[in-house]
From TrEMBL:
Protein name: Ribosomal protein uS12 methylthiotransferase RimO
Binding positions for [4Fe-4S] cluster 2 per the UniProt entry: 146, 150, 153
GO molecular function, one term: protein methylthiotransferase activity
Record text on cofactor binding: Binds 2 [4Fe-4S] clusters. One cluster is coordinated with 3 cysteines and an exchangeable S-adenosyl-L-methionine.
Family per similarity comment: Belongs to the methylthiotransferase family. RimO subfamily.
C-alpha cells in the first residue's frame, strides 16, 4: 500500500488562525494526507502566518525560515500571505503563498507540490473535523472580517469587511462538536456583537426552525445545545444587554471578553474605536448588578500616540471602577499600513514600559480581590490536565478562558480525568489562580 503523503503544519497567531489551520487540516486529512509532528518526517511544511503586528510578521518570517532550513519544501498561508513580496524578498524559495481563509488555494497549492495518493483504506475524518485544541473545548468562528476601522489595526485590509456565517451552519457545526465530546464552545470572530449585520440578520433553517443571524438569537440557540458557551470579542453595544438574561439563566457563561483597548475618550477617538466610552462604565456596572458572577476580560494598549499622563490615569481608574477581572496589556507598536502611524505624540519606550508595569500592577490587584470573593464557594470547573504524581488536576472555572486567563488548581484529585466537569470548593487564591479541592456532597 502506498504511504500517505505527510504534511507538517506550523500554526501561528490568534485563535482565528488556529481555526483556519484546523479547517485546512480537516480538508487535507479527508483527501488522504497525514501529518507529521516534526520537520524531518514531513514531505512538505505549511506555515500558517500572522501579520497583525510588525513583531508577529517578524515571528512569521522566522518560522518560514526555520521550516525552509529544516525541511526545504514550504507553503505559506494566513494573514502575512497578503504580503507576498515581503515574504519573497526574505524567502524566495517558498513553493507557494496564499492569504487568509483561502482554504481552496492552500489545498490546491498542496496538490500541485505534493499530489494526494488515492487510498481506499484512509480513515474517515471524525465528524467534528480535526482539531488542534484538546477534545473538550473548541473554537467556533461565527464571522470573518470587520466593519470597524480602528486606526492601529489592519485586519479589515487583510480580512475584508464583516462576513457572517448563516446561523444554521454555525449551529450544525456546534452540534457536531458537542456530539464528538466538546464540552465548551469558545465563540470567536473579530467583532462578535456585530454578528449578522452584513446578512441583515437573515434567518436560516435549523432543525426545521427559522433562526436569525443575530447576536442574541445565536447566543441563545448555542446555549440551548447544553455545552459551556463563552463569548469572545464582544463590544459593549446596547444590543448586548439582553444576553445578560441568558447568563443569569445559566445558558451562556457569565464571561465577556471585551477588547476595550483604552478608557480615555481622547485616546479612544484617536484609535477610532467603536462604542461610546461615556456610557461604557455604567453599562458594565449595570451588567455586573444583573449578573453578579459576570467576569469581564479585556485587553488594553498603553503608549498609544498622544496618550497623556491624564489619559493613562483615566485608564487605571476605569480598570478599578469597572472591576476588570482579567486584563491583558500591549505596549503600542506601529503596524505597517495602519493609519495610526501618522499620528503625532509618540510615547517614548521607557514611558510605555512604566505604564505597562503600572497597569499590570493595578490589574493584578483587581484580579486578586475579585478572585478572593470566590474563596469558600463551591463551583464547577472543567479539567484541562491531570498530574497523577501530584494528585492534582489543572482546571478552569466558568470565569477562565483557556490560554489567556487563570486556572483552578485542584488538589486531592484522585479519579478526575481530562475533560471532566467537576464540583470543587475554592480554598485559596492568588493574583490569577484559584486553589480548590473536590466538593464533598
Ligand atoms: S474592531 Fe478594530 S481592532 Fe478589532 S479587527 Fe476590527 S478594526 Fe481591528
Amino acid at each position: 500500500m502506498t504511504q500517505a503523503p505527510k504534511i507538517g503544519l506550523v500554526s501561528l497567531g490568534c485563535p482565528k488562525a488556529l481555526v483556519d489551520s484546523e479547517r485546512i487540516m480537516t480538508t487535507l486529512r479527508a483527501q488522504g494526507y497525514s501529518f507529521s509532528r516534526d520537520y524531518a518526517g514531513a514531505d512538505i511544511v505549511l506555515v500558517n502566518t500572522c501579520g497583525f503586528l510588525d513583531s508577529a510578521k517578524q515571528e512569521s518570517l522566522e518560522a518560514i525560515g526555520e521550516a525552509l532550513n529544516e525541511n526545504g519544501r514550504v507553503i505559506v498561508t494566513g494573514c502575512l500571505g497578503v504580503e507576498e513580496s515581503l515574504i519573497r524578498e526574505t524567502h524566495p524559495n517558498v513553493l507557494a503563498i496564499t492569504g487568509p481563509h483561502q482554504y481552496e488555494s492552500v489545498v490546491s497549492a498542496v496538490h500541485d507540490h505534493l499530489p494526494p495518493v488515492p487510498n481506499k483504506f484512509v480513515d474517515l475524518v471524525p465528524e467534528s473535523g480535526l482539531k488542534l485544541t484538546p477534545r473538550h473545548y473548541a473554537y467556533l468562528k461565527i464571522s470573518e472580517g470587520c466593519n470597524n476601522r480602528c486606526s492601529f489595526c489592519i485586519i479589515p485590509q487583510i480580512r475584508g469587511d464583516l462576513a457572517s456565517r448563516p446561523a444554521a451552519g454555525i449551529l450544525s457545526e456546534a452540534e457536531g462538536l458537542i456530539r464528538s465530546g466538546v464540552k465548551e464552545l469558545l465563540v470567536i470572530s473579530q467583532d462578535t456583537s456585530a454578528y449578522g449585520l452584513d446578512l441583515k440578520y437573515a434567518t436560516s433553517k435549523y432543525r426545521g426552525r427559522d433562526v436569525k443571524a443575530k447576536f442574541y438569537d445565536l447566543a441563545k440557540e448555542l446555549g440551548e445545545l447544553g455545552a459551556w458557551v463563552r463569548l469572545h470579542y464582544v463590544y459593549p453595544y446596547p444590543h448586548v444587554d439582553p444576553v445578560m438574561e441568558l447568563m443569569a439563566e445559566g445558558l451562556v457563561l457569565p464571561y465577556l471578553d471585551i477588547p476595550f483597548q483604552h478608557a480615555s475618550p481622547n485616546v479612544l477617538k484617536a484609535m477610532r474605536r467603536p462604542a461610546h466610552q461615556e456610557k461604557t462604565l455604567n453599562r458594565i456596572l449595570d451588567w455586573k448588578r444583573q449578573v453578579p458572577d459576570l467576569t469581564v476580560r479585556s485587553n488594553f494598549i498603553v503608549g498609544f500616540p498622544g496618550e497623556t499622563e491624564e489619559d493613562f490615569e483615566m485608564l487605571l481608574d476605569f480598570i478599578e471602577e469597572a472591576e476588570i477581572d482579567r486584563a491583558g496589556c500591549f505596549k503600542y507598536e506601529p503596524v505597517t499600513g495602519a493609519t495610526a502611524n501618522e499620528l503625532e505624540g509618540i510615547v517614548p519606550d521607557e514611558v510605555k514600559e512604566e505604564r505597562f508595569a503600572q497597569l499590570m500592577e493595578v490589574a493584578q490587584n483587581v484580579s486578586f480581590h475579585q478572585l478572593q470573593k470566590k474563596v469558600g464557594r463551591t463551583i464547577e470547573v472543567i479539567v484541562d490536565d491531570v498530574r497523577p504524581e501530584e494528585n492534582r488536576a489543572i482546571a478552569r472555572s466558568k470565569w477562565d478562558a483557556p490560554e489567556i486567563d487563570g486556572q483552578v488548581i485542584v488538589d486531592n484529585a484522585t479519579g478526575i480525568k481530562i475533560g471532566d466537569i467537576v464540583s470543587v470548593t475554592v480554598t485559596d487564591n492568588d493574583e490569577y489562580d484559584l486553589f480548590a479541592r473536590p466538593a464533598t456532597h
